[in-house]
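pasting input
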Amino acid sequence: MTLAEAIALVHNGTADALVVHANGMISRAGFGHGDRSEHLYMIGSMGLAASIGLGIALARPGRRVVVCDGDGNVLMNLGALAQVAARRPANLLHVCFDNGVHGSTGNQATISGLVALDEVARAAGYAVVRRVGDPAALRSALGELGERPGPAFLLVRITPDLPDPLFPRVTVPPAEMTQRFRRAAEPATGR
Amino acid sequence: MSRPSLSAIARPFVDALERHGFDFFTGVPCSLVKHVWAELEARGLQVTETREDAALGLAAGAYLGGRLPVVIMQNSGFGVSLNALASLHRLYKIPCLLVITWRGHDGADAPEHNLLGPVTPALLDVMEIPHRAPAGSDELVDAVHWAAELIARTREPVAIVVRPELRA
């Protein structure tokens, strides 16, 4: 399963969610699959996707929040796993696309092959943890996790393959992204 | 004449923060603001983060969810925070109020603070983060008003630097 296939399944399986995309190829793949106001694409501050997602989940407990993270990003800020587990937001799904490499900088190996990040999340205290490696299992896990209170950690094994041509760069200006996301995150008013 | 300590002004300071709309508090503690920390926790707020840049990420998420955040840290943690402040807060126009304690400001603190202490205001200047270092309790509450107005106008991070002499 490639990043493009996996991120499309996650988007389609969490349709109304507020989604934070980690910097690098994950943001580009998410933007390439389909842009929405409910999407935030990071273009810097590597490692902070889960912290940002946690802040959104705490501020908007009535909304589902999905973090599209990567193994390199999670390893950069392992403390975020502890903080998510400590705060226990039921509305947070933390997805980690694990390709075992830093895909945005030339596929240098991470240490996710030596350190099982799903087991780290389980030990930290996420309410539910799943590991999947093919599209059918990913669909099934998204269905299950949609029904259960979180915080959930879903490790998705993907290949390091990138498309040619590459995913597009994110073209939404960052400050505009902030404003449209804040509007999209507001509770629905009666109409 | 003795200055009022932060222990005596923790409550008015937190009151001023809440009055000006700040409604999300996180950070990493410092002994210089332990009474402020205690005051926040006494109000039922869960404040402690694992690292200062993670606290900034959490605060950015809170702002994206409609809150107005305050992030408390030592100036040593400000060093940890530079990339988040540049490539998240400033780039995305995500504001927060930084409450930064000023360890080592006179070069006569513990050794680990004496390099970063004297350059803290210059570092804030380089990062283009407006800052004030109030001398006393009235100035501290005034600084909250100043910071809130600036944040509303610019949507950028603003810092209040807490001098050691404000400590209890």
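fyi The CA atoms of residues 117 and 178 of chain A lie 30 Å apart.
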